[in-house]
Amino acid sequence: MPSTVRIGTRASTLALTQTGHVADALTRAGAGDIELVQVRTDGDRLTGSLASLGGTGVFVTALRDALLDGRCDVAVHSLKDLPTGTADGLVIGAVPVREDPRDALCARHAWTLESLPEGARVGTGSPRRAAQLLAVRPDLEVVDIRGNVDTRLRRVARDDLDAVVLACAGLARLGRLEAITQALDPAVMTPAPGQGALAVEVRADLEPGSPLHRALAALDDPATRLAVVAERALLARLEAGCAAPVGALAWLSPTGDVLTLDSVVTGPDGRRQLRRSASTAMPAAPAEPGAADGQRARTAVDLGNRLADELLAAGAAALADLGPR
């Protein structure tokens, strides 16, 4: 392992900010000197909706290639952007403590979802957000948008849109919480699986006990990791991607012995919606901090699979393009 840890990142302001937080944490944990390596992804280069570009993987592939060919030693992703399948030669080395996973309404005149005028124009690039908006307010005109946080907020400021929906986590990391007029209750707008969490990806052959390996172990938050494992297991079982209107949010009890998962599948027009929730007892955590927690991870996967099966049995595949093809 070189003395300088090279961290791959997209070049957007949000990606650089997120990566900066991870870099600072790794430095504090003794990883050594840090160098940021900017990588341009298809998602940054191409225009059009995420669904038309092939899903969230457009933000990931180039970073993973940079890891595998040795241009960087670490890659930082928004976890909701990671495809659910495994990547040969790579592992998620750390999942830091999750930011607020909720979605945020950023509207003119301090409007909330309830007080938006009839027929208001609300911008989002997410089919999940669009479907859940229409489930609550079928009168809204949902406008498909792309662009970074500032670009989207400017469309509200210049009255092109009445509101946009963004992630609370991204706004918090950018110091833009003042733009939020309403943090949306997950019971109304269930977040994307992994929303608010980061994935720190490394090559699978990272030397155990190396300074970077130890720093990643210190950065990893077991409660966040278990929650996103359950959420992503549900998404994988449904065979859904970013173009599917699926929401999932899991959390570990304060005592660490119960994991709960809420989920929703919404028809694209918002007219039909299935919500399901389940909990599971968790095995005891390892006695040593940072020790392998495979049994608890398998329990989280089982929870996600079970809830996905319940959704499919209740007709989720008829609401959206889900399930075995």
**Structural Rg:** 19 Å
Low-confidence stretches: none
Largest sheet: 5 strands, mixed
Can you tell me the overall shape?
Answer: globular
State the helical fraction: 25-40%
Give the tally of β-strands: 13
Quick overview of this protein structure:
The chain has eleven helices and 13 strands. With 325 residues, the chain is α/β, with parallel strands linked by helices.
What's the layout of helices and strands?
Layout (H helix, E strand, L loop, with lengths): L3 E6 L3 H16 L4 E6 L3 H4 L4 H4 L7 H8 L5 E5 L11 E5 L8 E5 L13 E4 L2 H10 L4 E4 L4 H9 L5 E5 H6 L8 E2 L14 E6 L7 H9 L2 H16 L8 E7 L5 E9 L6 E9 L12 H20 L2 H4 L6
Parallel strand pairs: 1-2, 1-3, 6-7, 6-8
Antiparallel strand pairs: 3-10, 4-10, 5-8, 5-9, 11-12, 12-13
Considering the chains and any ligands shown, give keywords for the structure.
325 residues, alpha/beta, five-stranded mixed sheet, 11 helices, globular
Verbal overview:
This protein is α/β, with parallel strands linked by helices and 325 residues long. It is 33% helix and 22% strand. The chain contains eleven helices and 13 strands. The chain has helices spanning 13-28, 42-45, 50-53, 61-68, 127-136, 149-157, 168-173, 211-219, 222-237, 294-313, 316-319; strands at 4-9, 33-38, 74-78, 90-94, 103-107, 121-124, 141-144, 163-167, 182-183, 198-203, 246-252, 258-266, 273-281. The protein has a five-stranded mixed sheet, with helices on both faces. Strand 12 (258-266) and strand 13 form a beta hairpin. The chain is globular and about 60 Å long.
